Amino acid sequence: MKKFNFIFFLLTLLVSGTIVNAQSATWTNATNDDNWHNEDNWDTTVIPSSSDQVIIPANSIVNIHSSNALANNLTVEEGAIVTVYGGNLVMSQGTFAPGSELNMLGGIVQVSGTLVINSVLNTIGVNAKSLIGAGANAAINITGTMHVHSPSDPLTLHNVKLDIFPSGTLTIEEGEIIGSGLLYNRGLFQKTAGTGTFSIQSNFENDEGIVNINSGSIETKRITTLNGGEINIAENSSFAMNSFTSSNYLNGTLSGQLDGPFIINSQTRLLGTTETVLNFYGPAGVEWRKGSIVSAGGINTNTTIVNQGLLTITDIGTGELALSGGITLRNEADIFINGTATSFHVYSTSLLNNADTGEITVEDNVNIIGSVLNTGLFQKLTGTGEVSINSFTNNAPGILDIVSGQFNCLDNYDGSGFITGAGTIKTNPTDMVASTIAPGNAGVGTLTYLNLAEFEALPGCVYQLEINGTTPDTEHDVFAIDSNAKLDGTFSIQLGFAPQLTDEFVVITANNILSCNLPAQVTADFNGNTYTFDVNCNADNVTLGVNTISLGIDDNTLASAKAYPNPTTGNFNINLGENHTEIHTTITNILGQTIASQKFENTNTIQLQIKEATGIYFVNVETEGQSKMFKILKN
């Protein structure tokens, strides 16, 4: 029994000692001077130590001016205000209740565990301020709001995770965040004031959070990870990933309204194993200025980045501009490649893929060193200069539209898509062509073909020609081959006037025609009449001569019908010239597939819409036994 009593006595001493070492200290502010370091302001009449449970009661005011303000567990109740002017507020963990405030005008807040801000954290003024972690998992959780006011010296994050919870908001104005910590946003991160650039020089991760830039700009200069979420940028503002020494990471679906640009200016890695999606909208879009886009999973991981908004590729940053490591950039909306992109690398196993709904526009001097797969619209709209691509595959229903200047396929051109425009295409001497050749820009014109050896057509080649008069280039299409030619394939004629039996049209020219495996005759309809043309293969040209005219209805009241606007973004009108009681329209794509049919009654003007992807379409109008075909280009 004596032994038992002795052991019990030792345990009692041990427990009592533990309670003494972890005592509670409650703020009283008995002196009304608001000073943490005045021992008379505590119920224990002792300034708290690092082992104490510190309580700041509701509606209290506490100021920390110098030295260390210590706590094991800091609890700040509703309405209380703690202000750090200097010195250090050091704790293992803490909680600020809703309605309380933590204000930093200088000094350090240090935590080894977790500090939860359910209220407001303000950083104010120009004195240096730091949030520091003293443990491996140190975190400051913002479930309420944090506001970085202007003017401000850098706010340092050191070995701590500043975690903006889904319910939390971080508002910044002017200044910067530096240090080895992590700014981690799952809630709302917003820049609301100041026209300057707020620089984040700590690691930054947006994990399905919202980033709003309403004024000025934000740049990140260390590792940046965007894991889904939303980025909204006002006009004259921007968000830029400017880390030149660290990689950035993209994953999931990124969306938002871009009235100002989202700028990629450094190496970017895709975290996903399948697709990363840029689903932005707005006039500014994404600007890829420099850096490689690669897979974080290594080469040949079949990783794809999908563009569903506006992506501008321009070469004005630092370093290489490239797709590498097996990355596919699939465009489902709009890509504009600026003329500064004179060395855009698409390395082996990587691919620039322009999908059916995609539209890629290139300027003079663009040089894509690699492979492009096109089933959408790939166009050169302006300039008399050249664009070069190593390998270009143009599969139906893809369209290569060379409005002006020259398009060079340095190593390879193939595919069954359309080649159209009034510019020039140059291919490799070994290339054979199975495309549909459609000269002219939304009308008649001359499309020129260059090859150092010869133009060699395959049986699948189609020469789609508009003939609206007898004058080449201005009234009917011409395919001008600036080399020798081996011709094969068929014709598709859109006739826009009534030729005479003596009329002949030079539709293909070449230096020398080495072989000609074209049909002997081809037919076309106009005003209800059918015209049969003899196909004449000569030494250096091919002509179509009117052989017979099969008469139908003499007078076609649709002869003067006009379609406008053409090109169109989707909606267009056809003025029939006079009123008709019943009109039938059929819209077909370049593959001959019907995409829309409509009936109209008692009108002289009809309104139509093409909802499908950009490309060339044909509209057939029939009324009272008469018909007319229109070629419509949708941009």
Features:
46-stranded mixed beta sheet, nine-stranded parallel beta sheet, 1 helix, 635 residues, single chain
Q: What is the approximate shape? A: elongated
Fraction of residues in H or I helices: under 10%
What structural class results from the helix and strand content?
A: mainly beta
Low-confidence stretches: 1-20
Question: If you had to describe this structure to a student in words, what would you say it looks like?
Answer:
By secondary structure, the chain is mainly beta. The protein contains one helix and 60 strands. A hairpin with a 6-residue loop joins strand 56 (562-564) and strand 57 (571-589). The termini are far apart. Mean pLDDT is 91; it is low at 1-20.
Give the topology.
Blueprint: H1 2-21, E1 24-26, E2 53-56, E3 61-64, E4 68-76, E5 81-84, E6 88-96, E7 101-104, E8 107-111, E9 114-117, E10 120-125, E11 129-133, E12 139-142, E13 145-152, E14 155-158, E15 161-164, E16 169-172, E17 176-185, E18 188-191, E19 197-207, E20 210-213, E21 217-220, E22 224-227, E23 230-233, E24 238-241, E25 248-251, E26 253-257, E27 262-265, E28 268-270, E29 275-281, E30 286-295, E31 304-307, E32 310-313, E33 321-323, E34 328-331, E35 334-337, E36 344-346, E37 351-354, E38 359-362, E39 367-374, E40 377-380, E41 386-394, E42 399-402, E43 406-414, E44 418-421, E45 424-427, E46 436-439, E47 446-456, E48 462-467, E49 478-488, E50 490-495, E51 504-509, E52 512-517, E53 521-526, E54 529-537, E55 541-550, E56 562-564, E57 571-589, E58 594-609, E59 615-623, E60 626-634
